[in-house]
Amino acid sequence: MVRPIRRTDLVSQVIDVLHGQIDSGAWPVGAKIPTEPELAKMTGTGRNTVREAVQTLVHAGMLDRRQGAGTFVIADTATDDSMRARFGSARDRDLLELRGALEVTAAALAARRRSPGQLARMRGLLAEVARHRRADDPDRAAEADAVLHETIVEATDNALFAEMYRTLAPRLRADITAESRRTGHVHDEAHVHLVDAIERGDQQAAEQCARALVERRLDDLG
């Protein structure tokens, strides 16, 4: 029986509960976990807290969100910690060059393979970035931007791309957040052009848009 969470660090507590359910075998690999409202009731926390905890385990490579189907357990241990630590300590330029190699190819594949649901999620995330920008909330705008990139990678329908990107995700999110705080933007218009190209199925244009986004960041480094 899972007890309601009462301590202050709610997200961490909920992550511990989710880990416990997976480690105990209550939620084996391949199982669909309860919905966010069910998890909120189970843990005695709010849906936002639950959503953040679940997203953390998605980034760790333990859970997978599937559009229209729910969230599933895909591993009972977190993605290789040594690789995650290596990415965390990498130079900014090295990270951006690797990000470019992944995201340019991912954009082209997404233009070929994206589902209507994934495209709708991309559009929703663009709107979310714009909304947080108007509210002068760079951190939440950066979070939505990071999820947009992850959704594009998921749209490749390539499990290895998605797994590699999830390993990079914590460092990428930190990089995107730092840029958003420093500049007040995350190249919003360029992201719109990228999603437009993916929607049209224009692989070449999608590649060019993704490459331009990474090159702008490389230019910023000097």
Description:
The protein has 222 residues and is mainly alpha-helical. The chain has 2 domains: 10-73, Orthogonal Bundle (Arc Repressor Mutant, subunit A); 81-221, GntR ligand-binding domain-like (Four Helix Bundle (Hemerythrin (Met), subunit A)), CATH 1.20.120. It contains 10 helices and 2 strands; from the N terminus they run H-H-H-E-E-H-H-H-H-H-H-H. Strands 1-2 form a two-stranded antiparallel ribbon. Helix 6 runs antiparallel to helix 7 (138-154) and helix 7 packs antiparallel against helix 8 (159-183). The longest helix has 25 residues, at 159-183. It is globular, with a radius of gyration of 18 Å. It starts with 9 loop residues before the first helix and ends with a helix. 32% of the residues are buried. The mean pLDDT is 84.
Summarize the structure.
This protein is 71% helix and 4% strand. It is mostly helical and 222 residues long. It has two domains: 64 residues, Winged helix-like DNA-binding domain superfamily/Winged helix DNA-binding domain (Arc Repressor Mutant, subunit A, Orthogonal Bundle); 141 residues, Up-down Bundle (Four Helix Bundle (Hemerythrin (Met), subunit A)), CATH 1.20.120.530.
